[in-house]
Amino acid sequence: MDGSDIYRASSGIRLGSLRANSGRLGSLRASSTSGWRNSAMDVFSKSSREENDEEALKWAALEKLPTFDRLKKGLLFGSTGPSNEIDIDNLGIAERKRLLDRLVNAADEDNEKFLLRLRNRIDRVGIELPTIEVKFEHLTVEADINTGSRALPSFINFFLDFAEVFLSFFRVLPNMKKHIMILDDVSGIIKPGKMTLLLGPPSSGKTTLLLSLAGALAKELKMSGKVTYNGHELHEFVPERTSAYISQNDVHIGEMTVRETLAFSARCQGVGSRYEMLAELSRREKNANIKPDPDIDIYMKAAATEGQEANVVTDYTLKILGLDVCADTLVGDRMIRGISGGQKKRVTTGEMIVGPSKVLLMDEISTGLDSSTTFQIVNSLKQYVHILEGTAIISLLQPAPETYDLFDDIILLSDGKIVYQGPRENVLEFFESMGFKCPERKGVADFLQEVTSKKDQRQYWTRRDDAYRFVTAKEFAEAYESFHIGSRRKVELATPFDKSKSHPAALTNNKYGLSKKELLKACIDREILLMKRNSFVYIFKIFQLTIMALITMTVFFRTEMHRHGIEDGGLYVGALFFGVIMVMFNGMAEISMTIAKLPVFYKQRDFLFYPTWAYALPSWIVKIPVSFLESAVWAVLTYYVIGFDPNFWRFLKHYLLLVVVNQMAAGLFRFMGAAGRNMIVANTFGSFALLILFALGGFVLSRVSVKKWWIWGYWSSPMMYAMNGIVVNEYLGHKFNKPFLDTTLGKAIVRSRGLFPESYWYWIAIAALIGYMLIFNFSLGKSQGNTLNEDHDAVTTELSSSNDNNQTKKKGMVLPFEPHCITFNDIKYSVDMPQMLTKRQERKSVQNLSNAMGSLYTSVLFIGINNASSVQPVVDIERTVFYRERAARMYSALPYAFAQVLVEIPYVFFQAAAYGLIVYAMIGFDWTVEKFFWFLFFMFCCLLYMTFYGMMTVAITPNADIAAIIAAAFYGFWNLFSGFIIPRPFGDYEDVLSNGETVKAYLRRYFGFKHDFIGAVAGVHVGLVILFAVIFAYCIKIAPFLLSIHNKRKLLAKRDENDSHESNVLNLEDFLAQRVVVLIIN
Question: Tens digit of pLDDT for each residue in 262-289?
């Protein structure tokens, strides 16, 4: 139905319905906690004022407007003076504050009065509010789980789980997991207009029940039974938007304020059927010549306005939850100081109730709250449920007696069984009939949670004449069926809900609360806000890129760059390659930023705040200007200083390709973060993927040197297209358009790198990079490419062809002539080899040497960075534990630090040994003991000092996110000045290349490697290992960030308060440490 038709179709216009509503509301008022017990006219006694002619004229003018325009205008009164006509769409902060101060000045006193005024306006014209009855019948939830050590998230268990799932799928291995029953054939009914308290000891199934009712149960769980809303099963409507499940986990974006968090939630959830109800309400009031309360009129019109960035409902929710005092404070996280844990719990509640959902499923909303705050929140919810006939089931662990008394019904769960469901007044009667009585000074809620416990049940046994025995939850559930409340509930469950009586607006059938355009706009606005809040990251990235560009300018200075031959051209290729990887890897911060927002994305996506594309698209689009800026910084600073082709058109093409590379890389890193879902996994598997792209990118390893079973990796590497495009753009310019052999020098250089010298390859590169950019930004799940079959086919083909060659056999035959013997001795034959062929052979020989060195350089660089990146989040987590245990004087800092250092050594040694054996053998290095152990030594030391470097960056920074940014700044610097130190096994080769030069001489001339310097290099490696380990230990000792600072400040405050100079005096070491930390932070 369109517009207000859904309300015209309701039966609320009938007089009988109006009288029934009035009678029900009267009973609600009678039971309320306020003094509102008078007639409906008394509701407006405090806010009514004499209408003067001017206000009457203003209202008459509004009434003459068309319905659409009339719903956008209102009259707002000030504290003094006449009313002002306002536009609802442009309701400012001051107007909203003034309105809410008039409606709900004190939340604990005025909220009920406000809701009664709201309900009175609706009842005056006979509109019936939508209500929802939730029923669950024979609900059973089961699961298969690992127990004991198999349930731990260990490295071995990961592979065991994978193998078990794989073998179980083919029915080779039976299911080894333990089968458990979470909910065991439970049935119940939750009535609208009643507050239902869900009680039960931990692990009784409360969360599972709430998730089942919300239609949000995990797919791994097996569910049977039926859940209905007004007789409709979950597949007949959209339960995620009809109900609001409030989780016990506080998952929010720390960079947003409390108000912004709730406002975004309200904006995405939409207004539901508020607009349709308001349109019908306004029509009926106009026909009946009824003038509404101006304050209520503005509130309802503002609440029904869709797509507002700051909604009046948001301010109202902040008020009743007591969050108005911190509304403009950042929510905060482990990196950002924000609101308290109790306030964060209330934000979690407010984020969901700010929407139009009519069913509230609230899971442990009191965690971290004091009893007074819990009472206020539950009391506000009670007023909403009673007056506006909402449906609410709230799970609380240990509610205070005054909070417990606010509820109408109780559901008690134990061991997956419903032990009791019914009125709160009858629950003690049931247990007394079973022989258990609650002591007079005992809280009823505590009694209910203990009476089913095997440990605590005996103390409540009152039948002294009968021997006590433990009564199980199953026995309680069976006894409840024969209890008079249980019998009545059984009748209610057996009576099906009459679907014809369900209000047309009760259940939501639209998947999302806003149109696609409005959802995209909301997500874009939030992404821009987050970019502003994270501006430091983007500024630091640009600063880092600027510094590296300045260094690169001095390394590849144009006066030192010549164009005499292929070796000179190789320097320009190196400069282009370094520029590509700097622009590409400058976006690595996207990994941690993506992972930090993933939990919020999963929650809001599952609750249908927005579709996945509406989240992914803004993350990409709003950062495009950053890519243009970063690429411009690099291109403008380096292009002409290095001496690339001065043609302006080629400069623009160079710049465009860097922009596309930056965008592709940002999408790749976001994809890696989304696929890894945590920093450790993303760094480990992401670095491996990057290694493949890097090694097969066309620079480190020439295309002609790539084995045919890996050639697919070459063609699928974005780095290959980037390198081919940027190299073609440079070397087809006029500066390299010199005759060289049978071609030009530029084309000869491009071919020497195994790339393609045709000009159209630039546009192929642009198209391919744009394609990868789109794929990475719109990929929603993990990449599941499988290369096993391709490798198997390639190996099979290769083996079969080699077998065919080896199986050639000689066969005898009869010749048609008589054979003779010819002898020759001391014959010489020579021919002048063409210069072009000589050059090609020389290039091939040098290229093979460069390929071997490049493969070592790449693998060592990436494995080292992977080690450093992977260890950072682990050290960060363990450091938090260390702070607590150090404060408890369990151990000092140095033993802890050096234990962390020592534990990494065996792992890195096995890593280096495994890699070294495979690579040394596969590349075909000289098998001598000395060379092999030198190789293993350098590999081990390099990986070890990179691991210690990652640990050190965490020790000197507040958290792993900052550590990753600081560490990345040095990766590019070390890469630029690496010099290929690792490939020392080549260093003393006397083999002669095709050009007559020995390997040893070539390395010394071209790379500057000196074999005599190997001892000094070994000493530097050991020194770096010791240096990073010592700095890590020292910084762990003197720079305990965040928690340690907090503890020291509390200690100083306590000392000042108690004026004690004995027990609370800081020693000199702690005092100096505190000063150092303050200086670092400032």
Answer: 999 999 999 888 888 988 998 898 888 8
